[in-house]
Amino acid sequence: MSPSAAARTTTSEARARLLGTATKIFYAEGIHSVGIDRITAEARVTRATLYRHFTGKEDLVLAYLDQADQGIRGQVAAAVGSTPSAVGQVRAVARSIVDGIRSPGFRGCAFLNAVAEYPDPAHPVHQAVLAHRQWFLDTVTELLARAGDDGVPVDADAAGRHLVMLRDGAMAAGCLFDPELVSETFLHGVEGVLREVSAAAAEEG
């Protein structure tokens, strides 16, 4: 490995350590309560190293949310790819959500947690949360639109909003109450949304 390649590898490793450390702490403890000194100490890097990779804490928070966004997009893509049936895809996405709720260390939705700390709609962190949520709403709405009987298209906007609200409630409750009960209740609610979509499609047909 050339000296320049070794330097790039070291730089990449330092950035990954910083982001990994920030992700762990931000998710477990919140964002505003965590200072740069705590992150650099736990990541075993200097402040100068942090500022070589991020313009400041806000930039690090945005990178944390971007990483979370990419992870959820991958999770949803895997769920959708697991079955050709649109109904099955909605159920698979729902199951992937409850897998998260049931996982050790679950602390709710990273995006809902973040937006509670950044209430200003014009703030870049708030905007990043809204962009992620819009993508998720668009994705589940499209799936629900294809989930009617015999593929009959339906107006799934209301159903999509309903599913997102069910998901939000489950993510909030999942770290406060019995995750198994919360997961069961959420999946039951998703089945109700699917029944509504199916009935609407049957009427359209």
Structure description:
With 205 residues, the chain is mainly α. The protein has two domains: 1-54, Homeodomain-like (Arc Repressor Mutant, subunit A); 57-204, Tetracycline Repressor, domain 2, CATH 1.10.357. The chain has helices spanning 3-29, 36-43, 47-53, 57-80, 86-101, 110-117, 124-145, 157-173, 179-204. Helix 1 (3-29) crosses helix 2 (36-43), helix 4 (57-80) packs parallel to helix 7 (124-145) and helix 7 (124-145) packs across helix 8 (157-173). The termini are far apart. Mean pLDDT is 90; it is low at 1-9.
Count structural domains. Answer: 2
Helix content: over 70%
What is the string of helix and strand elements?
HHHHHHHHH
Identify the overall geometry.
elongated
Instruction: Provide the β-strand percentage band.
Output: under 5%
* CATH architecture type of the largest domain: Orthogonal Bundle
Q: Could you describe the largest sheet, including whether it forms a barrel?
A: none
Query: The CATH topology of the largest domain, please?
Result: Tetracycline Repressor, domain 2
The fourth-level CATH homologous superfamily of the largest domain is: Tetracycline Repressor, domain 2
* Mean model confidence by pLDDT: 90
Runs with pLDDT <50, length 5+? Answer: 1-9
> Which radius of gyration do the C-alpha atoms yield?
20 Å
CATH C-level category of the largest domain: Mainly Alpha
InterPro entries: Homeodomain-like_sf, HTH_TetR, Tet_transcr_reg_TetR-rel_C_sf, TetR_C
Domain HTH tetR-type: 12-72
Protein name: TetR/AcrR family transcriptional regulator
DNA-binding region: 35-54
